[in-house]
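Usage example:
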Amino acid sequence: MQYVLILPEILLAGLGLVLLGMDLFAKSKRSLAVAGVIGTLATLVAVLANFGVAPAEIWSGTIRVDDFAQYFKVIFLVILGLVFLFSHEYLEKRDVRMGEFYILVTFATLGAFLMVSSLELITIYLGLELMTIASYILAGMLRQDARSSEASIKFFLMGALTSGVILYGLSLLLGLSGSTHLVAIAEALATSPNTALITAAGVFIIAGLGFKIAAVPFHMWAPDTYEGAPTPVSAFLITASEAAGFAVLLRILLVGLAPALAQWKMVLAVIAFVTMTFGNVTAIVQTRTKRMLAYSAIAQAGYILVGVAVATPQSVTAMLFYMLAYAFMTVGAFAVVIMLSNHIPSEEIEDFKGLAQRAPGYALAMTLLLLSLIGIPPTGGFFGKLALYRSAVEGGMVWLALAMVINSAISVPYYFNVIRNMYLAEEAPAMELSARTGLKLALGIAVAATLLLGVFPEPLVGFLRTIQVMP
Amino acid sequence: MTVTDWVFLAVAAVTLFSAYRVVVSRKIMHAALWLGLTFFGVAGIFLLLGADFLAAAQVLVYVGAVTTIIIFGIMLSTPEELRGPSPEAGSDAASSAAPTRRSFLPLVTAIGFAAVMVALVNRGEWPSPPGSVSTDTPRLLGEALFTRFVIPFEVASVVLLVALVGAIALALKEESGQ
Amino acid sequence: MTVEILQGYLILSGILFAIGAAGLLLRRSPLVMLMCVEIMLNAANLAFIAFARYWGDMTGQIFTFLVVTVAAAEVAIGLAIIVLLFRHRDAADVDDVNALRG
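Running the assembly step on the lines above writes:
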């Protein structure tokens, strides 16, 4: 039984090893992407088959299987699958080592899997390290581009610092409770007289995870890294890596530090407010597409953080919904950026000029995804934001809900700037804009899912209500 | 004070002093060597704490591998003059020699942080110590790693595989480029 | 192991961590920053081992064992990145890394 329950992890690790073997022998690296998509689908089936099983602690408590973990795994697999679909041409044009790229992105996802499917700090820490170590390498894989190396070194130094900080916090938790399992820690902390030390442990862990989700003031590495990294990697980091960070934050706050949760809510609310405001205001002045999307990602992290700060079942449901919608809309937007940068490598927002004339389909898709990022119906982004907003009001943080609304308004200009550029009747350079089937498929899936989540959100919301973070 | 206490104080002093030298050494090579001594000091502390297997692992991995890799890195990436006795390039010399504005804040932060940690630890109420650990640590570690913690153990092996693939992917020169 | 002794080890670990953090903030060379991170990881390991001894439980030692493994992998990657960075510019110094400002 315990092998069935960790079948997704086994399949994903197997996929990584198969890709490693194929990389040696396969003549065409395209077959790796195809194998990657097949492997992702197989893993997805294994994850879906595990939905609804009773929460179980297996492998002596080092792995936990519950719907919370399964749901996050679906998010990661969606992102991984889309990355497999849309990366090939970009990697080919930029002369990135494809074999290693596919292998590392698979193992990074495996790390994210382990982060969400455990209440044991040792597994969480190792999953985190697996994901981040693979990400450092991925960020530096444009080896001819100095900016990619800079992205990588900044990411690496900040990431290494972060692991040190988190590790110190974890050691304090072990010292205070004598255990590394979050449930046992919560039990021990509930009666512990050391409130100051518990707070210190919380500060270390929340600051460390704040780095991972690029919350202000721990965001300084993020814009540079997201801009300098290869574009498919940026898409992966902004969505998958961030979602994994949020999952761990939820687990640690709502399970391990549950006895001290009340004192953290206000701090997190302030961080959420500062993060979204900073991200949105800074995004307005950006002229480069990826940098704009990087600051937009910081702002979006602020919105998602609202769900953690409010910390009610409703807010967690809203947050889970928003994270899936966010994955689809962000990865979809990045698919368009990749398509464009395959033809115009400069990656300026100006490049979008006249896109509506040259490629009306892409322009329409991008418009829809940007509307979703702003939070305008009928998109998944709108519904997710509405749910977050409502949960904040019901959870007694009206000011935060208000801040979200104002921030959505602030974000309109920079998203609309892209749309305006696309539909501007400028002189359109006579250039054939084409893309491989994989990218088209990825974009189609992302757009369809964004619409679907906006029009028919009820089935998913109904399911998400049944998800428990607490064991 | 017992003998163990004196030994602890001596090893702790060596560790802290060498760690301090890592931070303030102007020559990067000296910093690397001081780092090796810091690792030795920490291994000594591990021994005092009865973690003999980990002390050995600390010497093997940190002193043996990490310090060596870092020295390789210095050789590969740093220009001659940064390694040799000639004055070091701008920013490092400035920040370690004179308390510039940039170096002032981190120092205050670090000292403040250390003070807070000391105060917290001193004020902490620790429950009465439970039993003591068995001295047969290699056997206990091995047993735990291959039974209770077998999944983390496997994940650690994947981490090493990723590092291997990644180091090659990043640092190996293209064949066509040579 | 008495409480006073545990506190001694924890204070040592805290100061070591602070030294590493100070170095990370003070120094600009990626290699020295990497060394400082290693000092911080060692400080955390020290706390783990002290707690393992205090609670009479092997979990802290297991944690440290795995952290040592991960740290070795991390250093290898860090070095690969620094070598890569050095190919792009003459001196590997974080202050030179600013093509991405703005």
